[in-house]
């Protein structure tokens, strides 16, 4: 899969909540502006 | 939304989230799915997506909302601006070493996973996600016994590890 380019639609990806209480998809934020911050414990 | 990129599962990032107590959702990306979607190979990263699902901005490796210029740009974006004044990082596609190593790791072949990741790091020396994940598995005491030992990480880089 080629990475999404600026100006292109982001695919709907679902990931589990860290606390184990379900999951969240990027499409769940439709109609809202979203900032995604990727980090790690390391 | 925050994304904890940690193949070892929720236990490692959870203490940081509990301490920060964010009022937004935090998800776990053990398989670096978003790394493949957006093309990042290191962290921390910031990605801005508009209300129609269009990618408007990305900053790989060095996105820090504590920096005034980044906080200001984030505020402009959520207020409706689509143009971004910050330098836009170019996405770089990653090889599949990370995924192959992850598959081995998940099947319990830790040594096999480490070997694939070592080869992956040789092929893609700037794939910091892969390098740091390997370090964290091989040297957990440098990551999870109190504060992360960044001085040790710097030594590893200087020694070519």
Question: Which H/E pattern describes the elements of chain A?
Answer: EEE
Q: What is the average of the pLDDT values of chain B?
A: 85
Largest sheet of chain B: 2 strands, parallel
Q: Which stretches of chain B are poorly predicted, pLDDT < 50 over at least 5 residues? A: 87-95
Structure description:
The complex is a heterodimer of chains A (42) and B (161). With 42 residues, chain A is mainly β. Helix content of chain A is 0%, strand content 29%. A two-stranded antiparallel ribbon of chain A has the order 1-2. In chain B, 45% of the residues lie in helices and 10% in strands. Chain B has eight helices and four strands; from the N terminus they run βαβαββαααααα. In chain B, the strands form two sheets. A two-stranded parallel ribbon of chain B has the order 1-2. The two termini of chain B are 33 Å apart. At the A-B interface, strand 3 of A face strand 1, helix 1, strand 2, helix 2 and strand 3 of B.
Question: What topology does this entry show?
Answer:
The complex is a heterodimer of chains A (42) and B (161).
Chain A: E1 14-16, E2 23-25, E3 34-39
Chain B: E1 2-4, H1 14-20, E2 26-28, H2 33-38, E3 45-49, E4 55-59, H3 68-78, H4 97-106, H5 110-123, H6 128-138, H7 141-144, H8 150-158
Parallel strand pairs in B: 1-2
Antiparallel strand pairs in B: 3-4
Q: What are the salient characteristics of this protein?
A:
heterodimer, A: 42 residues, mainly beta, two-stranded antiparallel ribbon, 3 strands, globular, B: 161 residues, mainly alpha, two-stranded parallel sheet, 8 helices, 45% helix, 10% strand
């Amino acid at each position: 899969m080629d990475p999404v380019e600026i100006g292109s639609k982001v695919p709907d990806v679902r990931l589990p909540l860290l606390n184990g209480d379900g999951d969240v998809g990027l499409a769940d934020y439709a109609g809202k502006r979203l900032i995604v911050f990727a980090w790690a414990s390391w | 939304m925050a994304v904890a990129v940690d193949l070892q599962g929720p236990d490692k990032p959870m203490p940081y989230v509990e301490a920060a107590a964010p009022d937004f959702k935090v998800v776990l990306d053990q398989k670096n799915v978003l790394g493949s979607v957006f093309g990042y190979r290191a962290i921390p990263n910031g990605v801005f997506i508009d209300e129609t699902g269009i990618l408007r901005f990305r900053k790989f490796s060095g996105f820090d909302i504590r920096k005034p210029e980044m906080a200001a740009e984030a505020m402009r974006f959520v207020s409706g601006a689509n143009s971004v004044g910050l330098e836009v990082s170019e996405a770089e596609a990653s090889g599949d070493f990370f995924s192959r190593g992850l598959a081995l790791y998940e099947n319990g072949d830790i040594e096999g996973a480490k070997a694939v990741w070592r080869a992956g790091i040789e092929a893609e020396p700037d794939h910091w996600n892969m390098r740091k994940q390997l370090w964290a598995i091989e040297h957990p005491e440098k990551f999870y016994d109190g504060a992360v030992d960044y001085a040790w990480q710097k030594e590893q880089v200087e020694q070519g590890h």
